[in-house]
Amino acid sequence: MNEFGRLILPVLLTPFLIIAGRSQTEFLPQSTFVDGPQFSVEALCFASDEGEKSRLDIYVDVGYDVLHFVNEANVYRASYEVGIGIFDTLNVSVSEKSWLENIKTESYDKSISPKESNLSQRSFALPPGNYTVRVQITDDDTKKSFAVKRRVNVRQFQKSRFVLSDIMLVNSLTAEGEKRVIAPNISGDVGGLKEGVILFFETYSRLTLDSAKLFVSVLNNRREIVTADSFMQKLAGPRTPCFHTIATKDLGAGDYFVTVESHPRQVNADGSVIEVSASASHTFVIRWKGIPASVLDIDLAISQMIYIVDKDRLEKMKESAADRKKELFLEFWRKKDPSPGTERNELMDEYYARVEFANKHFSHFIDGWKSDMGMVFIIFGAPSNVERHPFDSNSKPYEIWTYYELNRQFVFIDQSGFGDYHLQNPIWDVWSTRPRR
User: Residue 352: which residues within 8 A CB-CB, separation 6 or more?
Assistant: First the structure.
């Protein structure tokens, strides 16, 4: 039970899914259309010059590893079509744009690298309101399509005395003459930025102020403030571009929420006072390099290795100092890497994908990865067949999972009637390592 490779089925490179209410396990079929986050989309709202409309900027960042490159005389080329549709609350199309993106590189390694990507952007002038944005890319060679949907609120800027635009995350800011060149961060992952992440936004003011104080707060996923500061911003008339850097080196992996607020106060000649408040916010994430995106807590990730690591080694990892703990964690998975030398560890990705699936589908009174169903799923993967018996007479609800390749079968019974399924006859090599409740 100490070796992952002995118990876990070979790494699945295709998605897996157990369909509730069916008599058997089904896998997602191969398709020319995949509806999933295969690329990054950002939608940001700014003031527009078109009457009372606002400007919605949509950025589409497509990784090279998603595309199919063709070698032509030692130059690798790929192309894809981008289509953007904007729909109102009644799902009526209000605007759309499409275009073709062409990419070339002389490096094969770049053509397959997840670090390389192509960024494109289009703007839409829209009345303030709620919309759904649908972005689809289609590989010109394979004809495979990927789509992302995003709900956006196009805000009103023209009628406010003082208001902030949406916030853009910026990877880098350089100067070309008198112009500033912004490299936007579309994925929201700022973990690789050593100097911190730059925030870009605009202030729109109808007040007679020459400056405003801005307050910046970063909150964790429990909405606790982890860092905060403030700065004075000179106002250059009705529209002022603003840049501010947040230090991220001391933030651990996780999901974060940044807010920018201002409460300007104008005293008029007659002694009357105008006080207003404005705010904007944005989410960002910090991911560890070489570790699956779902792993945000190293202590939890180590605990979830209970099915593949012996007790003594697991305790040693848990009791180690923070830096050493992460080192031991990565060392374990490096030794199991089926493709050493590449950026991705397929076995680690598969394991934590199963943990994530278990948490989504088998959580009840406890986290899904601790449940009996979660345990079996994490160790053996998706079963070959599932029989569900939720309403049999003279019987409590039960399920039978069969793994044909391993000649194994697991029976889960819902003793309480509240969906809390337990293994009826646990196999010792599985049961002996299950988490204590």
Answer: 292, 294, 295, 301, 304
Main-chain phi, psi angles of 13, to 5 degrees: -100, 0
Taking a C-beta distance cutoff of 8 angstroms, is the pair 285, 188 a contact?
A: yes
Which residue type, as a one-letter code, is found at position 178? E
Angle between helices 311-319 and 322-336 (to 10 degrees): 140
pLDDT in tens, 242-258: 999 999 888 888 889 99
Residue appearing with tokens 């599985």? 430
Question: Is residue 208 within 8 Å of 161, Cβ to Cβ?
Answer: no
23-44 residue pLDDT tens: 333 332 223 333 344 789 999 9
> Rounded to whole angstroms, how far apart are CA atoms 280 and 263?
12
Residue 64 · residue 113 · CB < 8 Å: yes
The yes-or-no verdict on residue 6 having pLDDT over 70 is no
Phi, psi (degrees; rounded to nearest 5) at 375: -60, -50
Contact 4/116 with Cβ under 8 angstroms?
no
Q: Are 211 and 235 in contact (CB under 8 A)?
A: yes
What was the pLDDT predicted at 411? 94
SS3 of residue 287 by DSSP = coil
SS3 content of the chain, % helix, strand, coil (to 5): 20, 40, 40
Task: Decide: 5 and 114 in contact? Cβ < 8 Å.
Answer: no
> Are the CB atoms for 43 and 56 separated by under 8 Å?
yes
CA distance 53 to 47: 8
Amino acid 2: pLDDT? 33
Q: Angle 372-380/346-362 helices, nearest 10 degrees?
A: 160
The secondary structure of 186-241 as a DSSP string is -S-B-TT-TT-EEEEEEEEE-S--SEEEEEEEEE-TT--EEEEEEEEEE--SSEEE
Q: What are the DSSP calls for 293-351, one per residue?
A: TT---HHHHHHGGGGTS-HHHHHHHHHS-HHHHHHHHHHHHHHH-SSTTSS--HHHHHH
* Amino acid present at 232: M
Chain position carrying tokens 């999933």: 36
Chain centroid to CA 410 = 34
